[in-house]
Amino acid sequence: MSRAIALFFLVITAIACINPAFAQSSYPAKSVRIVIPYPPGGGNDIIGRIVADDLGKRLGQQMLVDNRPGGSTAIGAEIVARAPADGYTLLITSHTTYALLPNLRPKLNYDPIRDFEPVSLLATQSFALAVHPSLPAHTVKQVIALARAKPGQLTFSSAGAGTGTHFSGEQFKVLAKVDMLHVPYKGGNTALNAVLSGETTMTFGSLSALSPYVNAKKLRVIAVTSAKRSPLDNKIPTIAESGLPGYEMTPWYGLVTPKGAPQNIIDRLNGAVIAAMQSRDMREKMARVGYEPEGSTPQQLAEHIKAELARYARLIKVIGFKEE
Known about the structure:
Blueprint (H helix, E strand, L loop, with lengths): L1 H24 L6 E5 L6 H17 L3 E5 L6 H8 L7 E6 H10 L11 E10 L1 E5 L8 H10 L5 E4 L5 H13 L4 E4 L3 H9 L5 E5 H9 L4 E5 L27 E7 L4 H16 L1 H9 L2 E3 L4 H22 L5
Parallel strand pairs: 1-2, 1-3, 6-7, 6-8
Antiparallel strand pairs: 3-10, 4-10, 4-11, 5-8, 5-9
Helix pairs in contact: 2-9, 4-11
Protein backbone atom coordinates (compact mmCIF):
# COMPACT_ATOMS: atom_id res chain seq x y z
CA MET A 1 0.00 0.00 0.00
CA SER A 2 2.77 2.47 0.90
CA ARG A 3 4.44 1.78 -2.47
CA ALA A 4 1.18 2.53 -4.29
CA ILE A 5 0.70 5.78 -2.35
CA ALA A 6 4.26 6.82 -3.09
CA LEU A 7 3.71 6.09 -6.80
CA PHE A 8 0.46 8.08 -6.74
CA PHE A 9 2.17 11.15 -5.32
CA LEU A 10 5.03 10.76 -7.78
CA VAL A 11 2.57 10.83 -10.70
CA ILE A 12 0.74 13.85 -9.27
CA THR A 13 4.04 15.73 -8.85
CA ALA A 14 5.06 14.91 -12.43
CA ILE A 15 1.73 16.17 -13.77
CA ALA A 16 2.08 19.39 -11.77
CA CYS A 17 5.51 19.98 -13.25
CA ILE A 18 4.43 19.21 -16.81
CA ASN A 19 1.11 21.09 -16.75
CA PRO A 20 2.44 24.70 -17.04
CA ALA A 21 4.58 23.77 -20.01
CA PHE A 22 1.65 21.93 -21.58
CA ALA A 23 -0.63 24.93 -21.02
CA GLN A 24 1.87 27.21 -22.71
CA SER A 25 2.39 24.89 -25.68
CA SER A 26 -1.37 24.59 -26.23
CA TYR A 27 -1.91 28.36 -26.09
CA PRO A 28 -4.51 29.65 -26.51
CA ALA A 29 -6.68 27.06 -24.76
CA LYS A 30 -9.50 29.54 -24.10
CA SER A 31 -10.74 32.93 -25.26
CA VAL A 32 -8.34 35.90 -25.07
CA ARG A 33 -9.32 39.36 -23.88
CA ILE A 34 -8.11 42.34 -25.91
CA VAL A 35 -8.45 45.59 -23.96
CA ILE A 36 -9.00 48.74 -26.01
CA PRO A 37 -8.55 51.85 -23.83
CA TYR A 38 -11.08 53.91 -25.82
CA PRO A 39 -14.87 53.85 -26.36
CA PRO A 40 -16.19 52.02 -29.44
CA GLY A 41 -15.91 53.80 -32.79
CA GLY A 42 -12.57 55.61 -32.61
CA GLY A 43 -9.32 54.85 -34.43
CA ASN A 44 -7.94 52.70 -31.60
CA ASP A 45 -11.19 50.71 -31.51
CA ILE A 46 -11.22 50.19 -35.29
CA ILE A 47 -7.67 48.82 -35.40
CA GLY A 48 -8.32 46.69 -32.32
CA ARG A 49 -11.39 45.02 -33.78
CA ILE A 50 -9.76 44.36 -37.14
CA VAL A 51 -6.78 42.73 -35.41
CA ALA A 52 -8.96 40.82 -32.92
CA ASP A 53 -11.06 39.31 -35.70
CA ASP A 54 -8.02 38.14 -37.67
CA LEU A 55 -6.10 36.80 -34.66
CA GLY A 56 -9.16 34.87 -33.52
CA LYS A 57 -9.23 33.02 -36.83
CA ARG A 58 -5.48 32.37 -36.87
CA LEU A 59 -5.25 31.22 -33.25
CA GLY A 60 -8.50 29.27 -33.22
CA GLN A 61 -9.98 31.03 -30.21
CA GLN A 62 -12.40 33.88 -29.67
CA MET A 63 -10.83 37.30 -29.08
CA LEU A 64 -13.05 39.21 -26.66
CA VAL A 65 -12.84 42.97 -27.26
CA ASP A 66 -13.11 44.87 -23.98
CA ASN A 67 -13.46 48.65 -24.33
CA ARG A 68 -12.13 50.35 -21.19
CA PRO A 69 -12.09 54.12 -21.84
CA GLY A 70 -11.07 56.81 -19.40
CA GLY A 71 -8.03 58.61 -18.08
CA SER A 72 -6.88 59.32 -21.64
CA THR A 73 -6.19 55.55 -22.04
CA ALA A 74 -4.56 55.20 -18.59
CA ILE A 75 -7.45 53.16 -17.14
CA GLY A 76 -7.28 50.43 -19.79
CA ALA A 77 -3.49 50.32 -19.62
CA GLU A 78 -3.53 49.88 -15.84
CA ILE A 79 -6.08 47.05 -16.09
CA VAL A 80 -3.77 45.12 -18.41
CA ALA A 81 -0.64 45.94 -16.39
CA ARG A 82 -2.28 44.34 -13.32
CA ALA A 83 -3.67 41.29 -15.18
CA PRO A 84 -2.11 37.80 -14.91
CA ALA A 85 0.95 37.37 -17.13
CA ASP A 86 -0.48 34.35 -18.95
CA GLY A 87 -1.08 35.79 -22.42
CA TYR A 88 -4.86 35.84 -22.02
CA THR A 89 -5.07 39.61 -21.59
CA LEU A 90 -3.71 41.88 -24.32
CA LEU A 91 -3.67 45.64 -24.81
CA ILE A 92 -4.00 47.64 -28.01
CA THR A 93 -1.58 50.39 -27.11
CA SER A 94 -0.66 53.59 -28.90
CA HIS A 95 1.43 56.75 -28.97
CA THR A 96 -0.93 58.25 -26.37
CA THR A 97 -0.56 55.41 -23.86
CA TYR A 98 3.14 54.78 -24.35
CA ALA A 99 4.71 58.09 -25.37
CA LEU A 100 2.50 61.04 -24.43
CA LEU A 101 1.03 60.20 -21.02
CA PRO A 102 4.29 58.92 -19.47
CA ASN A 103 5.87 62.28 -20.36
CA LEU A 104 2.95 64.26 -18.98
CA ARG A 105 1.98 62.36 -15.84
CA PRO A 106 4.84 61.35 -13.54
CA LYS A 107 2.44 59.44 -11.26
CA LEU A 108 0.81 57.08 -13.74
CA ASN A 109 -0.32 53.73 -12.33
CA TYR A 110 1.58 51.88 -15.05
CA ASP A 111 5.04 52.03 -16.57
CA PRO A 112 5.29 51.54 -20.36
CA ILE A 113 8.62 49.72 -20.07
CA ARG A 114 8.45 47.92 -16.73
CA ASP A 115 4.85 46.62 -16.80
CA PHE A 116 4.43 45.18 -20.30
CA GLU A 117 5.89 42.70 -22.77
CA PRO A 118 5.88 44.05 -26.36
CA VAL A 119 4.35 41.72 -28.94
CA SER A 120 4.32 43.65 -32.23
CA LEU A 121 3.82 47.03 -33.83
CA LEU A 122 0.46 46.87 -35.62
CA ALA A 123 -0.06 49.92 -37.80
CA THR A 124 0.30 53.65 -38.32
CA GLN A 125 -2.31 56.08 -39.59
CA SER A 126 -3.11 59.74 -40.09
CA PHE A 127 -5.08 62.11 -37.95
CA ALA A 128 -6.75 64.94 -39.80
CA LEU A 129 -7.75 68.50 -38.98
CA ALA A 130 -11.48 68.73 -39.68
CA VAL A 131 -13.70 71.80 -39.31
CA HIS A 132 -17.43 72.43 -39.19
CA PRO A 133 -18.68 73.39 -42.68
CA SER A 134 -19.81 76.78 -41.40
CA LEU A 135 -16.19 77.81 -40.74
CA PRO A 136 -15.01 80.03 -43.62
CA ALA A 137 -11.67 78.22 -43.99
CA HIS A 138 -10.57 75.65 -46.56
CA THR A 139 -6.79 75.60 -46.00
CA VAL A 140 -4.37 75.55 -43.09
CA LYS A 141 -3.34 79.13 -43.83
CA GLN A 142 -6.99 80.23 -43.74
CA VAL A 143 -7.54 78.49 -40.39
CA ILE A 144 -4.47 80.24 -39.00
CA ALA A 145 -5.60 83.63 -40.33
CA LEU A 146 -9.06 83.16 -38.82
CA ALA A 147 -7.61 82.08 -35.45
CA ARG A 148 -5.36 85.13 -35.38
CA ALA A 149 -8.28 87.40 -36.22
CA LYS A 150 -10.39 85.85 -33.44
CA PRO A 151 -7.98 84.93 -30.62
CA GLY A 152 -9.48 82.46 -28.15
CA GLN A 153 -12.74 82.14 -30.09
CA LEU A 154 -11.99 79.06 -32.18
CA THR A 155 -12.33 75.77 -30.28
CA PHE A 156 -11.00 72.27 -30.94
CA SER A 157 -12.33 69.07 -29.42
CA SER A 158 -10.17 66.09 -28.48
CA ALA A 159 -10.55 62.52 -27.20
CA GLY A 160 -9.33 63.71 -23.79
CA ALA A 161 -6.63 65.73 -22.09
CA GLY A 162 -3.20 64.33 -22.85
CA THR A 163 -4.30 62.25 -25.85
CA GLY A 164 -2.80 62.39 -29.32
CA THR A 165 -5.71 64.46 -30.61
CA HIS A 166 -5.14 66.99 -27.82
CA PHE A 167 -1.42 67.12 -28.53
CA SER A 168 -2.19 67.62 -32.23
CA GLY A 169 -4.08 70.80 -31.42
CA GLU A 170 -1.53 72.11 -28.95
CA GLN A 171 1.29 71.56 -31.44
CA PHE A 172 -0.76 73.41 -34.08
CA LYS A 173 -1.35 76.34 -31.70
CA VAL A 174 2.32 76.74 -30.84
CA LEU A 175 3.74 76.40 -34.35
CA ALA A 176 1.05 78.65 -35.85
CA LYS A 177 1.28 81.13 -32.96
CA VAL A 178 -2.49 81.18 -32.46
CA ASP A 179 -4.79 81.09 -29.43
CA MET A 180 -7.48 78.38 -29.64
CA LEU A 181 -9.52 76.84 -26.83
CA HIS A 182 -9.15 73.11 -26.13
CA VAL A 183 -12.34 71.22 -25.20
CA PRO A 184 -11.63 67.64 -23.98
CA TYR A 185 -14.16 64.79 -24.26
CA LYS A 186 -14.20 61.15 -23.19
CA GLY A 187 -13.23 59.58 -26.48
CA GLY A 188 -12.96 60.22 -30.19
CA ASN A 189 -16.66 59.72 -30.95
CA THR A 190 -17.84 62.35 -28.49
CA ALA A 191 -15.16 64.76 -29.72
CA LEU A 192 -16.37 64.13 -33.27
CA ASN A 193 -20.02 64.65 -32.30
CA ALA A 194 -19.07 67.97 -30.72
CA VAL A 195 -17.82 69.43 -33.99
CA LEU A 196 -20.67 67.84 -35.99
CA SER A 197 -23.20 69.61 -33.75
CA GLY A 198 -21.29 72.89 -33.89
CA GLU A 199 -20.44 72.71 -30.21
CA THR A 200 -16.77 73.09 -31.19
CA THR A 201 -15.22 74.66 -34.28
CA MET A 202 -12.87 71.85 -35.25
CA THR A 203 -11.28 68.60 -34.18
CA PHE A 204 -8.22 66.47 -34.78
CA GLY A 205 -9.27 62.88 -35.33
CA SER A 206 -8.81 59.63 -37.18
CA LEU A 207 -9.20 60.20 -40.91
CA SER A 208 -11.04 56.89 -41.23
CA ALA A 209 -13.60 57.96 -38.61
CA LEU A 210 -14.02 61.41 -40.17
CA SER A 211 -14.39 60.26 -43.79
CA PRO A 212 -18.12 59.30 -43.76
CA TYR A 213 -19.04 62.74 -42.43
CA VAL A 214 -16.78 64.44 -44.95
CA ASN A 215 -18.49 62.52 -47.76
CA ALA A 216 -21.87 63.59 -46.35
CA LYS A 217 -20.71 67.25 -46.34
CA LYS A 218 -21.09 67.43 -42.55
CA LEU A 219 -17.37 68.08 -42.04
CA ARG A 220 -14.54 69.56 -44.06
CA VAL A 221 -11.07 68.04 -43.83
CA ILE A 222 -8.31 70.62 -44.12
CA ALA A 223 -5.12 68.54 -43.87
CA VAL A 224 -3.58 65.43 -42.29
CA THR A 225 -1.20 65.52 -39.32
CA SER A 226 1.27 62.85 -40.46
CA ALA A 227 4.60 63.46 -42.18
CA LYS A 228 3.29 62.03 -45.45
CA ARG A 229 -0.12 61.93 -47.11
CA SER A 230 -2.58 59.22 -46.12
CA PRO A 231 -3.20 56.18 -48.36
CA LEU A 232 -6.90 56.69 -47.64
CA ASP A 233 -6.88 59.90 -49.69
CA ASN A 234 -3.56 61.16 -51.02
CA LYS A 235 -5.19 64.32 -52.37
CA ILE A 236 -5.39 65.71 -48.82
CA PRO A 237 -2.19 67.67 -48.03
CA THR A 238 -0.22 67.40 -44.82
CA ILE A 239 -0.26 70.25 -42.31
CA ALA A 240 3.51 70.57 -42.71
CA GLU A 241 3.31 71.15 -46.46
CA SER A 242 0.35 73.50 -46.05
CA GLY A 243 2.09 76.23 -44.11
CA LEU A 244 3.42 74.73 -40.87
CA PRO A 245 6.81 73.14 -41.62
CA GLY A 246 7.99 70.80 -38.90
CA TYR A 247 4.47 69.81 -37.83
CA GLU A 248 3.97 66.05 -37.40
CA MET A 249 1.66 63.77 -35.49
CA THR A 250 1.73 60.17 -36.73
CA PRO A 251 -0.43 57.88 -34.59
CA TRP A 252 0.81 54.32 -34.15
CA TYR A 253 -0.66 51.22 -32.58
CA GLY A 254 0.93 48.18 -30.99
CA LEU A 255 0.05 44.98 -29.17
CA VAL A 256 1.41 44.24 -25.67
CA THR A 257 0.70 41.86 -22.80
CA PRO A 258 1.55 41.98 -19.06
CA LYS A 259 5.20 41.70 -18.05
CA GLY A 260 6.34 38.16 -17.38
CA ALA A 261 4.26 36.40 -20.03
CA PRO A 262 6.04 33.24 -21.26
CA GLN A 263 8.29 33.80 -24.27
CA ASN A 264 6.71 31.03 -26.33
CA ILE A 265 3.29 32.68 -25.93
CA ILE A 266 4.71 36.04 -27.03
CA ASP A 267 6.31 34.30 -30.01
CA ARG A 268 3.00 32.63 -30.88
CA LEU A 269 1.15 35.94 -30.77
CA ASN A 270 3.91 37.71 -32.71
CA GLY A 271 3.87 35.07 -35.43
CA ALA A 272 0.10 35.42 -35.81
CA VAL A 273 0.34 39.23 -36.02
CA ILE A 274 3.15 39.13 -38.60
CA ALA A 275 1.21 36.64 -40.74
CA ALA A 276 -1.87 38.85 -40.49
CA MET A 277 -0.04 42.04 -41.46
CA GLN A 278 1.56 40.34 -44.46
CA SER A 279 -1.72 38.96 -45.77
CA ARG A 280 -3.43 40.61 -48.72
CA ASP A 281 -6.78 40.55 -46.94
CA MET A 282 -5.47 42.45 -43.91
CA ARG A 283 -3.62 45.00 -46.04
CA GLU A 284 -6.80 45.71 -47.99
CA LYS A 285 -8.86 46.03 -44.81
CA MET A 286 -6.30 48.40 -43.31
CA ALA A 287 -6.08 50.52 -46.46
CA ARG A 288 -9.88 50.93 -46.59
CA VAL A 289 -9.87 52.58 -43.17
CA GLY A 290 -6.67 54.56 -43.61
CA TYR A 291 -4.11 52.42 -41.78
CA GLU A 292 -0.71 51.25 -42.94
CA PRO A 293 -0.02 47.75 -41.55
CA GLU A 294 3.41 47.40 -39.98
CA GLY A 295 4.25 44.29 -37.98
CA SER A 296 7.53 43.96 -36.09
CA THR A 297 9.48 41.78 -33.71
CA PRO A 298 8.88 42.33 -29.97
CA GLN A 299 12.36 43.88 -29.75
CA GLN A 300 11.61 46.31 -32.59
CA LEU A 301 8.44 47.44 -30.81
CA ALA A 302 10.43 47.86 -27.57
CA GLU A 303 12.95 50.05 -29.40
CA HIS A 304 10.16 52.02 -31.08
CA ILE A 305 8.54 52.71 -27.70
CA LYS A 306 11.81 54.00 -26.22
CA ALA A 307 12.44 56.20 -29.27
CA GLU A 308 8.90 57.63 -29.13
CA LEU A 309 9.19 58.33 -25.40
CA ALA A 310 12.34 60.35 -26.09
CA ARG A 311 10.89 62.10 -29.17
CA TYR A 312 7.75 63.26 -27.39
CA ALA A 313 9.76 64.38 -24.37
CA ARG A 314 11.75 66.68 -26.68
CA LEU A 315 8.63 67.95 -28.48
CA ILE A 316 6.78 68.63 -25.24
CA LYS A 317 9.74 70.61 -23.95
CA VAL A 318 10.04 72.63 -27.17
CA ILE A 319 6.37 73.59 -27.41
CA GLY A 320 5.90 73.98 -23.64
CA PHE A 321 2.92 71.63 -23.64
CA LYS A 322 1.33 70.97 -20.25
CA GLU A 323 -1.65 68.75 -19.55
CA GLU A 324 -4.71 70.66 -18.39
